[in-house]
């Protein structure tokens, strides 16, 4: 018979319970830690969303920080050559006005005996900003062109591009402002928040980003545009070829436009109004025979339609055109609106695509009326009109050429020094002083003309 033995290797029941209790305690602790971490993360997420919503509504943080940062982006004009300056890149306006060519101009002039007396010195913050590729936020001119003075400082040759402009935001008829904003940037002049960043329309930006992503994965053929008027200004002025080549270029435009907007302080209403003014004064509108590049609404009306800028503005301001007919006002509106639309593809719409532009103008007139920008009577009057383009054969764009010998000599000398054509010279942002005395030169020219054409003898 066998015997039953109790093995000592099995722990007592009380010992097993104790071990189980010891094993369960760390599990409870880790579970509690996970709960705590989850609560903290949830709190951080809620706080982050709340801050984001607050920022989208008030623009408090970006207005505070960007205005503080923009205040450091300064420059001073000091004696001698600058050792703290970065010249602009390949932007269309930078090239046309000569800013990108400054190193070449300086080198050519120095090789001919000229010297640099004064030049801009960037602040350290502005140097770092420009080195990162952003566009320096200087006060850009509404009109540029060559201006030559005689030896006494009297102007005797001046070219201004564009020829006409809006001097201030208040000079723009409200109907023109409303039409532009309805088409391009409806929230730009919203009263609240006063610190709004005009460079970013977040819903529009997100839509454009999703559209761009869809384009990359072949879900759609075209991507939607996310450019505000502020970023459009940066694009056609300073981006290479005036277009957005890549998402990084769009980011550069947005950052540059944001910093420029807050340069005057946290509140941006005046900056936003200036964006409207500057856009209307400088928007590219293709090129025309006998004139070249066309910029701004004023020159666009004159060159493409033969319309007078002052008359057009009067017709679009009800307070100044009470005696005007609806047909006159409708035609003026149609001309202005068509140029606003044409800026999307100006070389196409203002030449081969004129019929398509007319259809788009009709569509936008209906949209403007449904949106409350204009009344039904003016809409119908504009729809009934047809914008007639200038006939280059019967009404050419003639550029008056001054035959004054002194002016001809001064222009020829400048063009030779800078290795430019007369067309390029007249579009520079350049002031020059000649050694000529303009009054004396005119007297000499008149005397020589009289010698060449003596008076007829009396009978």
From TrEMBL:
Native source species: Phytopseudomonas seleniipraecipitans
Gene Ontology MF term list: peptidoglycan glycosyltransferase activity
Biochemical pathway: Cell wall biogenesis; peptidoglycan biosynthesis
Every Glycosyl transferase family domain range: 155-353
Full protein name: Transglycosylase
Residues passing through the membrane, by range: 32-54
Record GO biological process: peptidoglycan biosynthetic process
Keyword presence, Transmembrane: yes
Gene Ontology CC, one term: outer membrane-bounded periplasmic space
Keyword terms: Membrane, Transferase, Transmembrane, Transmembrane helix
């Amino acid at each position: 018979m066998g015997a039953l033995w109790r093995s000592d290797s099995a722990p007592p029941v009380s010992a097993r319970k104790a071990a189980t209790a010891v094993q369960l305690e760390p599990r409870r602790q880790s579970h509690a830690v996970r709960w705590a971490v989850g609560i903290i993360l949830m709190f951080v997420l809620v706080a982050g969303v709340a801050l984001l919503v607050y920022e989208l509504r008030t623009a408090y943080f970006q207005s505070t920080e960007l205005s503080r940062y923009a205040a450091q982006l300064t420059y001073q004009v000091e004696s001698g050559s600058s050792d703290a300056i970065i010249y602009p890149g390949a932007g269309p306006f930078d090239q046309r006005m000569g800013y990108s060519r400054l190193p070449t101009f300086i080198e050519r002039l120095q090789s001919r005996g000229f010297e640099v007396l004064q030049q801009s010195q960037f602040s350290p913050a502005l140097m770092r900003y420009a080195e990162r590729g952003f566009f320096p936020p200087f006060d850009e001119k509404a009109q540029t062109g060559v201006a030559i003075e005689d030896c006494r400082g009297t102007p005797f040759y001046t070219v201004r591009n564009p020829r006409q402009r809006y001097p201030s935001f208040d000079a723009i008829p409200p109907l023109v402002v409303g039409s532009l904003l309805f088409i391009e940037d409806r929230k730009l002049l919203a009263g609240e928040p006063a610190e709004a960043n005009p460079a970013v329309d977040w819903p529009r930006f997100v839509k454009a980003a999703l559209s761009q992503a869809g384009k990359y994965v072949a879900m759609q053929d075209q991507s939607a545009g996310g450019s505000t008027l502020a970023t459009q200004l940066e694009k056609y002025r300073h981006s290479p070829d005036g277009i957005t080549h890549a998402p990084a270029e769009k980011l550069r435009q947005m950052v540059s436009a944001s910093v420029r907007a807050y340069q005057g302080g946290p509140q941006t209403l005046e900056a936003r109004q200036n964006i409207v003014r500057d856009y209307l004064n400088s928007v590219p509108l293709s090129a025309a025979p006998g004139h070249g590049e066309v910029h701004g609404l004023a020159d666009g009306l004159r060159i493409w339609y033969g319309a007078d800028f002052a008359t057009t503005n009067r017709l679009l301001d009800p307070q100044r055109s009470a005696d005007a007919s609806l047909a006159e006002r409708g035609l003026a509106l149609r001309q202005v609106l068509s140029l606003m639309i044409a800026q999307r593809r100006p070389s196409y719409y203002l030449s081969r695509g004129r019929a398509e532009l007319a259809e788009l103008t009709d569509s936008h007139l209906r949209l403007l009326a449904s949106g409350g920008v204009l009344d039904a009577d003016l809409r119908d009057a504009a729809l009934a009109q047809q914008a007639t383009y200038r006939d280059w054969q019967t009404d050419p764009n003639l550029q008056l050429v001054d035959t004054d010998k002194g002016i001809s000599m001064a222009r020829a000398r400048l063009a030779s020094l800078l290795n430019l054509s007369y067309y390029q010279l007249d579009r520079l942002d350049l002031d020059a002083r000649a050694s000529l005395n303009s009054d004396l030169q005119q007297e000499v020219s008149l005397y020589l003309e009289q010698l060449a054409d003596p008076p007829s003898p009396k009978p």
